[in-house]
Amino acid sequence: MPEGPEIRRAADKLAAVMIEQPLTEVWFAFPQLKHYQVALVGERITAIEPRGKALLTDFSNGLTMYSHNQLYGVWKVVRAGETPETKRDLRVRLETAEWAILLYSASDITIVPRGEIEQHPFLKRIGPDVLNMALTVEQVEQRLLSPAFCKRQLGGMLLDQSFLAGLGNYLRAEILWQAELAPKHKPQDLTPDALHKLAQALLDIPRISYHTRGQVDENRHHGTLFSFKVFHRSGEPCPRCGAMIEKTALASRPFYWCPVCQR
């Protein structure tokens, strides 16, 4: 599943071609959304906001579309009138005079008035967006020590979107490696220095992944541009201590780590 950095980069790409441009064509695959097609033609997209692994698309008539890429969803940007060849199922097409943005394979799509979108079950349960640049290390430390999370093992907690939205499997592995922590630890048992280092990594690693730019293969690791230290590197030497990186299963997901320097 794409993680927070990939969703935010997708939002940036969509916004660059769509913001404030009148919609000339609107198409939805799902019957319950069809009646919005006519209502949205002529309207403009005013904002595209990531929320963890979801996107909120605001329209000038006060409606907002919630979409979640889930495991296989992907947004594409094409020239107006173009439809790329793909085996994916098209779910949404929003087109202007010059560009079109297409959502494939996702099935979790809702449109409601902007004032009601915060009541969506996913948005009500997620924590702060890890890529919200206003989120501070001190706030993350407080969240780690809060009653809801202080007694939970890090290996499972870092996949829970109610902790910090946008974290996922590759970020979990890289954050714990950066913090030099094994996944068995609980926040309440960490020293102040270890807690601070973990909180810093929880912000630094997703932000580095988001801000990194360059050539990318979108079919490998969700197109991430982040340089992996342990993820998908089992059997290779740890860049920090030289021990062999290991792969195991953790919270029903593959996990990569260095058993020597992650204590």
From TrEMBL:
Q: Does the keyword Iron apply?
A: no
Active site per database record: P2, E3, K53, R253
InterPro entries associated with the record = DNA_glyclase_Znf_dom_DNA_BS (IPR015887), Endonuclease-VIII (IPR023713), FPG_cat (IPR012319), FPG_N (IPR035937), H2TH_FPG (IPR015886), Ribosomal_uS13-like_H2TH (IPR010979), Znf_DNA_glyclase/AP_lyase (IPR000214), Znf_FPG/IleRS (IPR010663)
Instruction: Tell me the Pfam families matching this sequence.
Output: Fapy_DNA_glyco, H2TH, zf-FPG_IleRS
Q: Which UniProt keywords apply?
A: DNA damage, DNA repair, DNA-binding, Endonuclease, Glycosidase, Hydrolase, Lyase, Metal-binding, Multifunctional enzyme, Nuclease, Zinc, Zinc-finger
Domain FPG-type: where?
229-263
Required cofactors, per record?
Zn(2+)
Q: Which domain of life is it from?
A: Bacteria
Q: Is Transcription given among the entry's keywords?
A: no
Q: What are the Formamidopyrimidine-DNA glycosylase catalytic domain coordinates in residue numbering?
A: 2-94
* Residues that, per the record, bind DNA: Q70, R125, N169
UniProt remark on cofactor binding: Binds 1 zinc ion per subunit.
* Membrane-traversing stretches: none
Q: What is its EC number?
A: 3.2.2.-, 4.2.99.18
PANTHER family xrefs:
ENDONUCLEASE 8 (PTHR42697:SF1)
What is the annotated role of this protein in its UniProt record? Involved in base excision repair of DNA damaged by oxidation or by mutagenic agents. Acts as DNA glycosylase that recognizes and removes damaged bases. Has a preference for oxidized pyrimidines, such as thymine glycol, 5,6-dihydrouracil and 5,6-dihydrothymine. Has AP (apurinic/apyrimidinic) lyase activity and introduces nicks in the DNA strand. Cleaves the DNA backbone by beta-delta elimination to generate a single-strand break at the site of the removed base with both 3'- and 5'-phosphates.
Name this polypeptide is given: Endonuclease 8
Annotated organism of origin: Serratia silvae
Gene for this chain: nei
